[in-house]
Amino acid sequence: MNKQFIRKAGIYAAVFFITVSLMANSAVWAQEIDMLIKGGHVIDPKNKIDGKMDVAIKDGKIFRVAADIPASSAKKTVNAAGLYVSPGFIDMHVHVFAGTEEQKFTGFGITNGFGSVVPDDFTFRSGVTTVVDAGSSGWRDFYKFKKQTIDNSQTRVLAFISIAGNGMLGTVHAQDTTDMNPVATAFVMNEYPDIIVGIKAHHYRGNDFTPVKRAIAAGNITKKPIIVDFGSSTPKLSIKDLFLKYFRPGDIFTHTFSGSDMSEKNPGGRESVIDENNKVKPFIFEAQKQGRIFDVGHGGGAFVWSTAINSLKQGFLPNTISTDLYRNSRNAGMKDMANVMSKFLVMGMSIQDIILRSTWNPANVIQHPELGHLSVGAEADVTVFNILEGKFGYMDARGSVFNGTKKIEAELTLRAGKVAWDLNGLSGPQWDAAKK
Fold first, then answer.
1. Which residues contact 57 (CB under 8 A, 6 or more apart)?
2. Total structural domains in the chain?
3. % of the chain with per-residue pLDDT over 90
4. Distance CA 13, CA 271 (A)
5. Rounded distance, CA 87 to CA 49, Å?
6. Which domain holds residue 96?
């Protein structure tokens, strides 16, 4: 055997081993995607996507959104054929400062009490990946809320802070204007600018706008919006004055579709957006055009079919859809985010408009534009959902029922690329195919 033959054999062997190594490595390199959600109908309002697309996720971020991404490029593929895929839902009105403090005064026990709920127990199963607590804490106890709930939740928890220093400890505390300190509130907000998104004015029964003015003062210092839950006063406070005299563009009115009117038989309480003839009051449209935000805030007592149906028929749609999740609403007519979204579906709103008001719109309202979309590089908060066909009944806050044939149901919820909810095992291997 001559030297030339030995030399050639060595070269061929080296080429062979290099080729095999490259082929092996290319197989690994080809699987650069951690999860591929394939074949679903993607609705991403920010990016104007509304059609069949694949969504690729890598390292907890959106890697690519395109048609026909090869399954061979992914370590795991989820078959979403026949389902919808959207950014994770944002519920911008909840109460999740859960604790064990007894309620000593009239109210819901929202602050560190039994009236609030633990977020992870109710979010992912309805497609929600981000919640905004609506004023459960004030400047006196926000740090406790952060340490107790925000820092220990898989759900992304943001917050409106109450203008009342004690938060929503009870209705009696909401009347104490001496504890509504804009400077102290703004100070705490500036300590946590990425978490606290605005200020809440709530449950005030006086016939004046003091809490609103104090909340706006804090909002002017911090450049953040306020969200208002009008209490009940006699006579009613004017929502026209609230929207056109006090509100700034971006300020939020929650419980938009609650009932009540301005009749002599009902002089107290909360003024409705519709009049006694079920007509949307003209200044409502004007206020919305001027940038005032109308939020659903369903809750246990703030959503009435006659108000909602007549509003939608006349072209008045909410800017944002939210639940007002707390103990008394979760097992009543509200139930969860998917159920509230379903109500708008059966009232005739398109699924595209519903997703807009449950993702990209609230992200902008709370000044977090990094949320609510499936742009490349965004954190992979993703909801895969079904629209069921059948016979479904939906209840409002008064127990009245509206029947429909469609229902939104969350199939798979990803939080930062990790599976947080999987109703029917879309993301798992079949038991007989799993490794022994």
1. 33, 34, 35, 36, 37, 63, 380, 382, 414, 417
2. 1
3. 80
4. 85
5. 11
6. 88-373
What is the pLDDT confidence band of residue 264, given thresholds at 50, 70 and 90?
very low
Q: Which pLDDT band, with edges at 50, 70 and 90, does 262 fall under?
A: very low
The whole-number pLDDT of residue 109 equals 79
Q: Is the pLDDT of residue 158 over 90?
A: yes
- Percentage of the residues of the chain whose pLDDT score is greater than 70: 89
- b/e per residue, 285-315, with b = 16+ CB within 10 A? eebbeeebbbbbbbbbbbbbbebbbbbbeee
Domain for residue 45, yes or no?
no
Is 170 part of a structural domain of the chain? yes
- The Cα–Cα gap between 312 and 378 comes to 33
Mean pLDDT of the 145-173 span: 93
Does 156 map to a domain?
A: yes
Tell whether 294 is covered by a domain: yes
pTM assigned to the model: 0.91
Q: What is the pLDDT of residue 207?
A: 87
Q: Which residues pair with 389 in a beta bridge?
A: 406
- What per-residue confidence (pLDDT) applies to 220? 98
Q: What is the CATH number of the domain that holds 106?
A: 3.20.20.140
Q: For residue 310, what pLDDT band results from cuts at 50, 70 and 90?
A: very high
10 confidence band (pLDDT: 50, 70, 90): low
